[in-house]
Write a structure and sequence with these properties.
Largest sheet: 9 strands, mixed
CATH class of one domain: Alpha Beta
Number of strands: 9
Helix content: 25-40%
Structural class: alpha/beta
Strand content: 15-25%
Radius of gyration: 24 Å
CATH architecture of one domain: Alpha-Beta Complex
Order of helices and strands: HHEEHEHEHEHEEHHEHE
Length: 252
């Protein structure tokens, strides 16, 4: 509906409030005057190097691999961009690396390579957690020489997860029935349309989750000397609790 059509309708509203509506509608015809993507997201900062030769890189939002440009534009983190920034910092002579983290985690694909880039950067690395370093984000944090977190930051959630929705009842209510066929012997191939999944398919997916989870645990145990067994239940912890469990080195 155009601003003119909206103005010409009957309103039950105070004159002052209607004046505000009119001003908003006036801007609506020129959206660039009031709608800016940067106002709606936390922008992803670019890598920078300060006067102490410390390179600052940022791990924030959801984490993914080979993502489109919009992914970073709206504040998320691409593993490959992170790797490129760390490499660029080393090439120009940065002597230490500060990894600023505020992320709930992300994809397993690409995570190991990003972690290796941090661990093998050749620089002294400190992970600064201000907000959240959970799941894949903690995988990256624990590669640092030291992990520092604010008192209210949430840290941990060490584990892997996979979820899907069984939408078969919905499609059936619309009169749609999916039929899935595979070549003989390919009993693990599926599209998640042929629900419920078979026992063999579920077992295969569970094995993959267990393998990824075990790899995650090995990385944490290999980097955190005093890690407590409790953290592998995939809980997340703040302040003194995170410190006591060995997830972080300092509260700051």
């Amino acid at each position: 509906m155009t601003p003119t059509k909206m103005n010409n309708r009957i309103w039950a509203i105070s004159p002052q409030a209607f004046a505000e509506v009119q001003r908003t509608l006036a801007h609506a015809s020129q959206p660039e005057a009031f709608l800016n993507l940067a106002d709606m997201v936390i922008l992803h900062p670019e890598m920078d190097i300060d006067e102490t030769a410390t390179a600052h890189v940022y791990v924030q939002g959801a984490l993914g691999d080979k993502m489109p440009n919009i992914w970073n534009m709206v504040g998320n983190t691409d593993y490959r961009k992170l790797r490129d920034e760390i490499s660029a910092a080393a090439e120009v002579g940065a002597t230490s690396l500060a990894v600023h983290i505020d992320s709930p985690g992300g994809m397993v694909a690409g995570l190991e390579e990003a972690g290796d880039a941090i661990a093998n950067s050749g620089m002294e690395v400190t992970a600064y957690v201000d907000g959240m370093a959970c799941s894949a984000a903690y995988y990256l944090a624990c590669q640092a020489d030291r992990v520092v977190a604010t008192p209210s930051s949430e840290v941990g959630n060490i584990g892997t997860v996979m979820a899907w929705a069984d939408d078969k009842p919905f499609w059936e209510s619309m009169g749609v029935e999916f039929n899935v066929m595979t070549n003989e012997g390919a009993d693990l191939k599926g599209t998640f349309r042929d629900s419920p999944m078979t026992d063999a398919q579920r077992e295969f997916l569970q094995e993959g989750l267990n393998e990824a989870g075990a790899d995650f645990r090995r990385v944490v145990e290999g980097n955190r000397e005093n890690i407590d067994e409790e953290v592998f239940r995939a809980g997340w912890y703040s302040g003194e609790r995170a410190l006591a469990l060995g997830l972080i080195d300092t509260i700051s």
